[in-house]
Every structure is written in structure tokens, then in C-alpha cells.
Amino acid sequence: MSHRNRFVLLIIVVLAGVAAVAWAQGGDAATETSSLKESMSFVEVFKAGGVLMYPITAMSLIGVALIVYFLIVMRAEQVVPSRRFEQVREKLAARHWDEVRMLCERKPSPISAVIVAAIDYIGETAAPDPSLLKEIMQGEGIRQATRLQNQAQYLLDIAVITPMIGLLGTVVGMLQAFNSVALDIAKAKPMVLAAGVSLALITTAAGLIVAIPAMAAYAYFRNRVAGLTARLETASADLLTLIVK
User: What is residue 171's predicted lDDT score, i.e. its pLDDT?
Assistant: First the structure.
């Protein structure tokens, strides 16, 4: 099973679990219509979460934007364009270095960067050393693979930072609740205590809701980057064979 199919299967399982929980809760709520009228709306929940809900929401929007961007960028055709790759192979076999450079500069990609690095070395020396040429191409390939890995790392950062923001909300909420009792236990109101506990629970839940999908997406794109790196290495080795013939 491919990484993409595994990711889709994971999403289906998660959605099925959420649907099952929602159905079970819906069945219980049907028998308690009076409690439904007193439930909080999304806007009220957001307000109850306090100021920390804003950075958590920002993290969620950034995470969604990154996922969409990675789905577009982290594809085999973006790393090693098949049609352009065949054109480059033909030009390299004919030793048309200038035309190869033009093809690579017309549509930049990781494999294009590797080819340009090789051509630059060939143009700077009269007798290129095959072993040094191999090191140059491998070094540029590693740099391009690292760049892809670093991009996926942003999702991991979101998955780590967001629960910490939620934990900060937990601490703030509990302090708010306990302070209302510590200042004057006789005047402590249940609504004040409930507001503090609500802040603590809502920010914690919101942080986890953002972090869990971000971590799952990071795992998926990490595996995708590994596959793209292997494809880049194979293409680079093929081109190196053509150049040193």
C-alpha cells in the first residue's frame, strides 16, 4: 500500500470514529432537549477560550495553507519533470551544454539545480574529474533534499507549539479559577470558577485539535519527501552516467 493510500485510509478511519462519536452523542442529546438549548455556540466557545484562541486559530490556518502548498509542490513532476528530464538527457548525450542550461533555467526544479551545478563545474575546467563531478552532483542533490525536508518541518513545529499554547491556556484558566477562591472564599461565585475551568479545557482541546492533524500531515509529507529524494538520487545517477561517457 502506498503512502498516499495509507494517509487516505487513516483519514477515513478518523472521520468514521468522529462520526460514530457524534452519532452516539446525538442519540443522547435527543433525549435531553432542554440541555441543548443551554449549550454554547462556536462563537461562545471561542470567546470562552480567551485571547490564546487567536494564536491557536492562526496556527490552524497556517497548517492548512502549508498542507495545500505541499500537496502542490511535493510531487514527482515538480522534483523530476518527466518530459523535461527526457529532453535534458537527449541534450546531455549530444553534449549541448548551453541548451541543457536553458532547459533547466526555463523551469527550475531540484533536478535542474543538480544539472546546473554539474554544467558549471564542466565549464570551469578543461578536463572534468568524474569523481569530483559525482561529489558536486551529490552535494547539490543533498541540498535540494534537505530543502524539501525543512519545508515539511514547519508542520512538526505547528504540532509541537500549538499544544504548548493550549497548555498555557490551561495554566491561565486554573489560576483564574483558584484566584477567585483565594481572594475571598466567601464571595467565590460558581460562574467565576466555571469561566476559569472553561478557559483551561477549551484551550487545551483547541491545541490538540490543531496539533493532531498537523502531526499526521507531517508524517505523511515526511514519507513523501523520502520517496522524492530517492527519485532525485536515481535521476542524478542516470544523468551522471550520461555526462561521464
Answer: 80
